[in-house]
Amino acid sequence: LAKTTQPISMDSYEGQEVNITCSHNNIATNDYITWYQQFPSQGPRFIIQGYKTKVTNEVASLFIPADRKSSTLSLPRVSLSDTAVYYCLVGGLLEIKAAGNKLTFGGGTRVLVKP
Amino acid sequence: DAGITQSPRHKVTETGTPVTLRCHQTENHRYMYWYRQDPGHGLRLIHYSYGVKDTDKGEVSDGYSVSRSKTEDFLLTLESATSSQTSVYFCAISESSYRAVTGELFFGEGSRLTVL
């Protein structure tokens, strides 16, 4: 399983762009990169997923370089409500027989947005 | 938001007692999971199910059992609760094998369990 490393915490201010980089040096060919957001006392929420290059949705952008050994989640113009823990996950197809999901969540990055 | 309901949301119990947590979904998703979340450990997979009566172990399955007799319900049982099982438990669901293995999960609100 590909292990991920991301910063423990980051501080930002309202209106700024926040970039969180996740390192996953042993990512496998079939692995996808997924980011989740978690607010206190809530379950994680899917934000974005990608395989290579750049993916953008209404919430964030995900940048993945050609070697795929890292990825960067970009949150444009953050607000106070973006204060949360952000998790980077790497996973892909395992045995087709079980099609099991053994995705590993790391400790996440705690983002604090200040006024 | 995906229709996932966990019950109970909060429970305090004593060491040695059995505890069952229930996850109920209204999405008709095939894949269901139980995670626990502890400070310093992030989210860790306990058990998961890939269909009715089809379950498998995750990375921290010792002391836990699961059952899935219907598509919509996934039960997590602690046969004899210990203080080390004090945690927040999250249920998650996924629509398909493709979405499951590539990481698109939908989580419930969590069940906070305290074992005294």
What report would you give on this structure?
The complex is a heterodimer of chains A (115) and B (116). Helix content of chain A is 0%, strand content 45%. Chain A is built from no helices and nine strands. Chain A has strands spanning 9-13, 18-23, 32-38, 45-50, 53-56, 61-64, 70-75, 84-91, 109-114. In chain A, the strands form two sheets. Chain A has a five-stranded mixed β-sheet with strand order 1-9-8-3-4, with no helix packed on it. In chain A, a hairpin with a 5-residue loop joins strand 6 and strand 7. Chain A is globular and about 40 Å long. Mean pLDDT of chain A is 87; it is low at 94-99. Chain B is mainly beta. In chain B, a hairpin with a 2-residue loop joins strand 5 and strand 6. The relative contact order of chain B is 0.32. The mean pLDDT of chain B is 91. The A-B interface holds A 32-34, 41-46, 49, 87, 89, 91-94, 98-108 and B 31, 33, 35, 40-45, 48, 50, 56, 58-59, 90, 92, 94, 97, 100-110.
Q: What string gives the helices and strands of chain A in order?
A: EEEEEEEEE
Spans where pLDDT lies below 50 across 5 or more residues of chain A: 94-99
What are the segments of chain B in which pLDDT stays under 50 over at least 5 consecutive residues? Answer: none
| CA radius of gyration of chain A | 14 Å
Counting helices, strands and paired strands, the structural category of chain A is mainly beta
- Which percent band covers the strand fraction of chain B? over 45%
Categorize the overall geometry of chain B.
Answer: globular
Percentage of residues in DSSP E strands of chain A: over 45%
Helix amount of chain B, in percent? under 10%
- End-to-end distance of chain B, in Å? 34 Å
